[in-house]
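Handout, section 4.2: multi-component inputs.
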Amino acid sequence: MKFAVIALRNLARNRRRTLLSLLIIAAGTIVALLTSGFIRFSFFGLREAIIHGGLGHLEVAPAKDVEAGGASPERSGIPGLEGWGDLRGRIEAAPHVLGAGAVVQFTGMISKGDRSAAVLAVGVEPDRERLMRFELRLRGGSNLPDAPPDEGDDAVLLGATLARQLGAEPGDLLTLLGLTADGALNALDLRVAGLFTTGLQDVDSRIIKVHLASAQRLLGTQNATSLIVGLDDTARTDESRAAIEGLLAGREPSLAVVDWRTRAPFYGQVVSLYLGIFWFLGSVIFVLVCLSTSNTLMMSVMERIREIGTLLSIGTSRAQVAAIILLEALWLGLLGALSGDLLGIVLVSVINALGIQMPPPPGATSGIELHLAAAPVDFAAAVGMMLVILGLAAAVPVGISMRLRIADALRHV
Amino acid sequence: MAPGRPLFEAAGLRKSYRLGAVTIDALRGVDLTVDSGEFVVVAGPSGCGKTTLFNLLGALDAPDSGSLLFEGDDLGRLSSSERTLFLRRKVGFVFQSFNLIPVLTAYENVEYPLWIDGLGAPERQRRTKDALASVGLAGRMHQRPDQLSGGERQRVALARGLVHDPRVILADEPTANLDSGTGAEIVELLARTNRERGTTFLIATHDAAIIEKSPRRVRLLDGRVVEDGGGR
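Output:
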């Protein structure tokens, strides 16, 4: 304890130099906090946008379809999930499950007058989507009706870019062509209920949504492609997956449960990219803070060579002298990082309150509001990181003190 | 210590330094024996090797050749941890420039050697207060060195040197930075401590007043003992 007090008092000897070091450490801490706050919010926002944009937390599908089509959300073979009504009931009774909606996915051709486009069509249950807290970002018109439409009353939601390409607006009549389960070509007239966006321009140019009943009518089947499961908390994904796999054990034909991470490889790529940027930036901060504080500590030690000689001459071991210098560094790291944490909280609050609008990311259709997450673990990690940096910064000054000859140190002017 | 064995036995001590391209022979074969309880003054002009000799006697440095025994143990063969324990328990230093730790109060400076040696708080407190009282600083113990006069600082340094009850005090020019009156007080304090506690004192000095009062005077010149009078 006494060495810690001596170390702290040593820092107070040259207040201006100590204050400068604290500012450098605090600035490094703030940059790390703002970056991690932005990245954490981006990860959270992207994850929840993907899940609640229609992907869901889990998908239950015939194992053979998953093996053949991979985990892609754009799987579009013949719907192979039979008896899904009973299965849905069992899944929805499981803990943390908000709902399970049947979907039918298929590719087709949609036309308005002389304009046609290849589309990826998804048949959904709007009431179940609402239960699973899915968000539909409408850009005009209204959502599909909850009730299965009667024949001739079928409706469609168009991706916003696709609607522009077709020149279609809510209320327009379109024709959708698709292949039935028997391989025959079938057509369905659809009235445009609304326009929507997924947030991704590429997807918006080829996606349509219809009611599950309309999709099944077009394809001539009662089957579904899969059941999409929505949970009350994304953190429960693995636990719920295991529970649902337990429910499905022994069922023939076998079913596979695929989680959102597997179905959205794009998310993993974004995480890798952002983490790469974060580590690069972190390394720059690491080096800058380490070099500047090492210089400060070195000056502080060089000014006290004779004092260190005195400490050694009255029986202080070299390890104890090293401990005093290391403790000075750790005090600097702790006080600087805590100051940085404090200022960081203020800055995060101010930035979040300002509601700064960011331009759309590449491939996205709309900008986002700059928001920074303030995770307690980040604030603790910033303190830990600064302690490690200052510990390393102390290595050279400690090395000098360990090599000092006492007689030379006492002669030092 | 074997009964009747001298405190220090130095024979043929040699020590040289390199100063740039020049080699300086600071000690050129010093023979010296000091008994426990002696009060010895080592005198000589600047550069005669007094400080080098004290560094060797205090195990702060090792001789190039020759032997140096402390109570029969070879100081030149101490390991690093043995040297630290020797410095902690057997020897106390008083330096010309006081060499107090500026961030510690007078009390903390004196307490420090006891603390690093692991003494319990009550024993530390008792001995620290006794040591400060013995040098007349009981009322100034909570001042930092920069709040004390030169004489007071040297008294604190002496209390720090004595507090762990060492076998010997090595005082290198203890009055050089003091006015004559304060210097005389310090010399009297050293002599009284020697008489009352039986602590061995070796004092390197130019100060004629100290040299005259000393029962034993060792004179160094060009790294050799040229006179060893009185005492023994």
